[in-house]
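Minutes, project check-in
Item: structure for the 105-residue chain
Input as provided by the requester:
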Amino acid sequence: MEIVYASLIPRQPGGAVQSNGRAEVMDALWAHSVPSDGLQHISARPEPGRVDLLLYLLTLDSPGTPNAVERARTLITRSHQSSPWLNLNYLPPVPLTAHEGLDAC
């Protein structure tokens, strides 16, 4: 199992995450996950100006399979594009190239 840390940033600068935001984020990610994501568990924690996520993904060692960070980013991007609630409340994820050097934990 691999763990990937990610954060979602509210669209409103300095905006506090609503009390139901944690559950809504996790529900959206589960609703838009597919088997190839390897998603096993999600934890979310509202922090000032963001929601921190830990995504627990199966380790997939097949040749050509995207690594855990890529799969997490794909899941978050897919969820953001498909969920009107996520799209309305959170900024889209930034490209992986903006986070060079980061890898799965």
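Outcome recorded: Strands lie at 2-8, 39-47, 50-57.
No further action items on this chain.
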